[in-house]
């Protein structure tokens, strides 16, 4: 990774970004394909740095990364052919009347073809989404190996027997195809144990079913060294302590002017069937919440 500053005038507004934007600590500020709403939003972020990886290859279908949003179905069809969203699946909503990029989490209650989609009242960090009838929203749903996205509006607010929303039935559905082993952006504290049994604290910043990216203020080892990661995983209020064996693939030391945090790319190995299921579930949970890496 070769992070270099990006002049603010080179960052497009109101259209999908052609690359990821990072801060000085290597955290993703904007994912590729996201849109920057205003110049003011960039000015606020400049204090943390705005950088991009100038050595990163184009993310295309051939590199098994995210592909551009494409129309998944003709007008008037939801869900797309062969796709059956399950009741209770996670749904993400974002207001299109606001400059905020935050997504609120809800659950699918059901849908009536060509009429409406019913979801629970969206929440974000225990803060409810304050909806207004007629407000336009962007909706994302993770089903199978794809993320389906469409624009809608709030058709009706209901409070009985619980708080839920009717959304207008979409006229256009788009799809983001997940690569074979997708990555999610996370922010999890982990305990790292080296081959000598020494325990150190680190931060898990990107996660996949096959490996992860760590940031640590101390040296965890060199390329080829074995580690064990321990951290709590939570899915739908169920919690487990994951203990995963890993090997360091790459170490990136901080450059002059950066923080002292070191970056480690690691690969998991000998993962049990149970832990593999938890890993995949955790990655898909974060992706469904809009945390794409």
From the structure above, extract its key features.
about 290 residues; mainly beta; Molybdopterin biosynthesis moea protein, domain 2; Pnp Oxidase, Chain A; Thrombin, subunit H; 3 domains; six-stranded antiparallel beta barrel; 20 strands; about 10% helix; globular
Concise overview:
By secondary structure, the protein is mostly beta strands. It has helices spanning 39-45, 273-288, and strands spanning 3-5, 21-22, 28-30, 51-53, 70-73, 90-95, 104-112, 116-120, 123-124, 127-128, 136-143, 146-158, 164-168, 173-177, 184-194, 199-207, 211-216, 226-235, 238-252, 262-268.
Summarize the structure in words.
The strands form 5 sheets. Strands 6-7-8-13-12-11 form a 6-stranded antiparallel barrel. Helices cover 8% and strands 44% of the residues. The chain is mostly beta strands. About 4% of the residues have low confidence. The chain has 3 domains: 61 residues, Molybdopterin biosynthesis moea protein, domain 2 (Alpha-Beta Complex), CATH 3.90.105; 108 residues, Roll (Pnp Oxidase, Chain A), CATH 2.30.110.10; 105 residues, Beta Barrel (Thrombin, subunit H), CATH 2.40.10.220. It has 2 helices and 20 strands.
């Amino acid at each position: 990774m070769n992070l270099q500053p990006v002049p603010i005038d080179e960052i497009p507004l109101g259209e999908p970004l052609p690359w990821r934007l990072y801060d000085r600590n290597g955290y993703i500020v904007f994912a590729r394909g996201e849109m920057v709403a205003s110049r003011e939003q960039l000015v606020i972020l400049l204090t943390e740095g705005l950088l991009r990886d100038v050595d990163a290859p184009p993310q295309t279908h051939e590199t098994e990364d995210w592909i551009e949003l494409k129309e998944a179905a003709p007008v008037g069809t939801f869900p797309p052919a062969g796709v059956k969203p399950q009741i209770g699946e996670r749904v993400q909503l974002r207001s299109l009347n606001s400059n905020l990029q935050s997504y609120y989490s809800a659950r699918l209650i059901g849908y009536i073809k060509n009429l409406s989609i019913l979801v629970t009242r969206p929440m974000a960090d225990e803060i409810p989404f304050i909806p207004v009838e007629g407000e336009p929203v962007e909706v994302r749903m993770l089903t199978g190996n794809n993320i389906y996205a469409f624009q809608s509006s709030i058709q009706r607010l209901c409070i009985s027997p619980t708080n839920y929303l009717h959304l207008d039935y979409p006229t256009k559905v788009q799809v983001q195809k997940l690569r074979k082993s997708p990555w999610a952006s996370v922010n999890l504290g982990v305990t790292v144990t080296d081959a000598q049994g020494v325990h150190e604290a680190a931060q898990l910043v990107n996660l996949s079913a096959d490996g992860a990216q760590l940031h640590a203020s101390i040296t965890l080892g060199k390329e080829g060294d074995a580690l064990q990661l321990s951290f709590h995983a939570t899915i739908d209020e169920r919690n487990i302590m994951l203990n995963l064996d890993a090997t360091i693939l790459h170490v990136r030391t901080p450059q002059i002017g950066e923080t002292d945090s070191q970056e480690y790319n690691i690969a998991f190995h000998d993962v049990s069937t149970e832990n593999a299921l938890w890993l995949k579930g955790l990655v898909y949970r974060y992706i469904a919440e809009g945390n794409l890496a």
